[in-house]
Amino acid sequence: MAAAPFTGIGVALVTLFDDTRALDEKGTADLAARLVDDGVSAVVVAGSTGEADTLDDDERRRLLDAVRARVDGVPVLAGTGGTWAGQAARRTAAARDGGADAALVLSPRRTADVRPYYAEVAAAAGDLPLLAYHYPVVSPPGIPVEVLPELPIVGAKDSSGDAERLLCELSTWDGHLYPGAATLLSFAGPLGCPGAILALANARPEQCAAAFAGDAGVQRALTADHLAAAADFPAGIKAMVAERYGTSAVVRG
Questions:
Q1: How far lies 199's CA from each of 20, 144, 164, 203, in Å?
Q2: pLDDT for 45-76, tens place per residue?
Q3: What phi-psi label fits residue 126: left (phi over 0), alpha (psi between -120 and 50 degrees) or beta?
Q4: At what angle do helices 85-97 and 57-70 cross, to 10 degrees?
Q5: What DSSP state is assigned to residue 53?
Q6: SS3 for 87?
Q7: Are 51 and 79 in contact (CB under 8 A)?
Q8: Over the stretch 133-168, which tens digit does the pLDDT of each residue have?
Q9: Tell me, what CATH number does 33's domain have?
Q10: How far apart are CA 214 and CA 184, in angstroms?
Q11: Is 176 among the domain residues?
């Protein structure tokens, strides 16, 4: 198995827009740099939290370029999932050419067998490491645990929030597993997950890191923040980020 793309807390970065809902790549990159200063170990652009479905290909490229330039030396991952394999493959090749350190590839909607999809994406990725992304609330049905060993990936992000599934993944698969639910941090870290990829890290990076290190008290204290961030997503987390860092809370949609 290849090395983990990163260890510690990765932020599923919000994408900032101005009052006309135009992309603010500079503001987004500046936020990424502040989060790195506050303890995150990696940055994911154009993921679910980053309102990826609203971004065109040029905006994805500009976002990746701006964030990479601003957080030099920190792993930057690009969300490249698509509604079908060809779209995801093109996005993944573009992320590779744009200098991403890995691609986070959301599984396709309404697809029972995801193996052909990930095979086509891997062919386009070349030597770019791939993380499969299981998020059945957004893209059902997701990825069955038993299929993970058959995919051409180095790891996966699991945003199901399902503790039993997390245990099954860790027990039956040797890939690098990153939980995407802030509710499982104090559980996942001590069990050996290399890191986590979190929306809540946009607003509470230090607390996410402490919970991942096993601090049960911080984990409990994060409950209210987790619920606030999830409310009216992504407006809830953007409001929290705006309160802390003075950023725009504008969402597309």
A1: 24, 23, 21, 8
A2: 999 999 999 999 999 999 999 999 999 999 99
A3: left
A4: 30
A5: G
A6: helix
A7: no
A8: 999 999 999 999 999 999 999 999 999 999 999 999
A9: 3.20.20.70
A10: 10
A11: yes
Structural contact between residues 33 and 207, judged by C-beta atoms closer than 8 angstroms: no
Residue 34: name the closest of 250, 245, 230 by CA: 245
pTM of the model: 0.97
Residues 6+ apart with CB under 8 A from 180: 12, 135, 157, 158, 159, 161, 196, 197, 198, 199
Specify if 250 maps to a domain.
no
Q: What is the DSSP letter of 132?
A: E
Q: What is the pLDDT of residues 80-122, one digit of tens each?
A: 999 999 999 999 999 999 999 999 999 999 999 999 999 999 9
Residues 45-69 as b or e (16 or more Cβ within 10 Å = b): bbbbbbbbeebeeebbbbbbbbbbe
User: Which strand (E) or helix (H) includes residue 163?
Assistant: helix 163-172
Q: What is the DSSP letter of 183?
A: G
Residue 48 near residue 86 (C-beta atoms within 8 A):
no
Query: How large is the average pLDDT for residues 226-242?
Result: 96
Q: How far is CA 16 from CA 19, 102, 173, in A?
A: 10, 22, 36
Active site residues: 133, 157
Does the pLDDT value for residue 1 go beyond 90? no
CA–CA dist 210, 2 (Å, integer)? 27
Compute how many other C-beta atoms are within 10 angstroms of the C-beta atom of residue 242: 16
CA 30 to CA 39: how far, in whole Å?
A: 15
Structure tokens of 31?
């936020």
pLDDT-derived band at 253 (thresholds 50, 70, 90) equals confident
**Residue 116 belongs to domain spanning:** 8-245
Query: What is the Cα–Cα distance from 56 to 46, expressed in whole angstroms?
Result: 10
- Count structural domains, the chain: 1
